[in-house]
C-alpha cells in the first residue's frame, strides 16, 4: 500500500501558531493534488481534530484518502514522522549554527573587513565556444536563495571577457538587487582584480574571493589527492586540507554555481537542436 505522510512540528525557535496549521496542510495537500502524486492513504500527523475536519471539507477531492490516526500502527507511524521532523529541525538548526561559525572563520582567514551573510557566486559554461552562458547563484542567511539566481547569455569568447561581461551586468543591477557582502569567483588573481575594477564605479562594499583548481602536470594529475582547490583574496592565497570546513563550504557554493551554469548551457543547446 502506498502511503504519504504530512507533518509539521513546532519548536521554541521555529514556532508555527495553530492559526497557521490549517493553511500549512492545505497548501501541502493542494500541491500533492496538483502534482498528481496521490497515494492510497495520506496520514496527517500532529494536527488538531478541528483542522482535520476542515481539511476534509475544503478539499473534497482527496477527503476519502485523509487519515488522522488515534491508535494502532498508523498512529505509531505518525509519531515516528513527528520524531523525524524534530530531528530534521534540530539538524537544520545545528547546520545553520555551524555555517555561521564557518563564515566567521572565513572572515578571519582572509582578514575581511566585514561579516559575511550574503554571498553571490559566479561561473560560466560553454562547449567549444558555442552556447556561452554565465550563472550567478545567491546564498543568504544560510540558505540558497533561488529567487535571486540569474542566468546570463554571454558573447565574449575568452573566460576573462566572459567574467567581465557577467560581473559588469551584475554590478549595474545593484539598484534592483542590492549588492551582497561577498563575491566568490571561479578563477584567480586576474578575476579578483577585474572584479575590484568593476566595483570601483559602483561604490559598493563587496569582499571578493576566488576558487580555482591548481595547475598540475601529468604525473601530479594521476596522483591520488593531488587535485587541490586554491582559495585567493586580493593579497592572500591558501591551499587548505580537503577536509577543512572552510574549503568544503566554499566548494559547496562553487559546485552549485557550476550546476546552475551547466543546466542553462544544456537547455540552450537542446533548444537550439530542436529548432
UniProtKB/TrEMBL annotation:
One GO term in the molecular function aspect is:
excinuclease ABC activity
Signal peptide as annotated in the record: none
Q: What are the record's GO terms for cellular component?
A: excinuclease repair complex
Biological processes per GO annotation: DNA damage response
Do you know which Pfam families this protein is assigned to?
UvrC_RNaseH_dom
The protein's matches in InterPro entries, at most eight in alphabetical order, are given as: UvrABC_protein_C, UvrC_RNase_H_dom, UvrC_RNase_H_dom_sf
Q: Which Gene3D superfamilies has this protein been placed in? A: UvrC, RNAse H endonuclease domain
Q: Which domain of life is it from?
A: Bacteria
Describe the location of the UvrC family homology region profile domain by residue ranges. Answer: 43-199
This one is known as UvrC family homology region profile domain-containing protein
* Native species: Helicobacter didelphidarum
Amino acid at each position: 500500500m502506498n502511503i504519504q505522510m504530512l507533518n509539521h512540528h513546532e519548536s521554541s525557535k521555529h514556532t508555527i501558531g495553530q492559526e497557521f496549521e490549517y493553511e500549512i496542510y492545505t497548501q501541502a495537500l493542494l500541491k500533492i493534488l496538483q502534482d498528481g502524486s496521490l497515494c492510497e492513504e495520506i496520514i496527517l500527523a500532529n494536527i488538531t481534530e478541528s483542522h482535520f475536519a476542515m481539511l476534509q471539507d475544503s478539499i473534497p477531492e482527496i477527503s476519502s484518502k485523509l487519515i488522522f490516526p488515534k491508535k494502532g500502527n498508523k498512529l505509531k507511524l505518525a509519531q515516528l514522522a513527528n520524531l523525524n521532523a524534530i530531528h530534521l529541525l534540530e539538524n537544520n538548526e545545528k547546520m545553520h549554527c555551524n555555517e555561521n561559525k564557518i563564515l566567521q572563520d572565513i572572515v578571519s582567514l582572509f582578514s575581511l573587513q566585514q561579516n559575511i551573510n550574503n554571498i553571490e557566486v559566479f561561473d560560466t559554461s560553454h562547449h567549444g565556444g558555442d552556447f556561452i552562458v554565465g550563472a550567478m547563484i545567491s546564498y543568504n542567511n544560510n540558505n540558497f536563495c533561488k529567487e535571486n539566481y540569474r542566468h546570463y547569455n554571454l558573447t565574449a569568447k575568452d573566460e576573462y571577457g566572459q567574467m567581465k561581461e557577467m560581473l559588469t551586468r551584475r554590478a549595474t543591477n545593484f539598484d534592483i538587487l542590492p549588492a551582497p557582502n561577498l563575491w566568490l569567483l571561479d578563477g584567480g588573481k586576474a578575476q579578483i582584480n577585474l572584479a575590484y575594477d568593476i566595483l570601483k564605479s559602483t561604490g559598493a562594499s563587496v569582499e571578493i574571493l576566488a576558487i580555482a583548481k591548481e595547475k598540475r602536470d601529468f604525473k601530479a594529475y594521476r596522483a591520488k589527492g593531488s587535485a587541490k582547490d586554491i582559495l585567493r583574496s586580493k593579497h592572500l592565497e591558501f591551499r587548505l586540507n580537503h577536509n577543512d570546513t572552510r574549503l568544503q563550504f566554499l566548494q559547496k557554493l562553487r559546485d552549485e554555481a557550476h550546476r546552475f551554469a551547466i543546466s542553462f548551457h544544456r537547455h540552450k543547446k537542446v533548444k537550439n537542436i530542436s529548432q
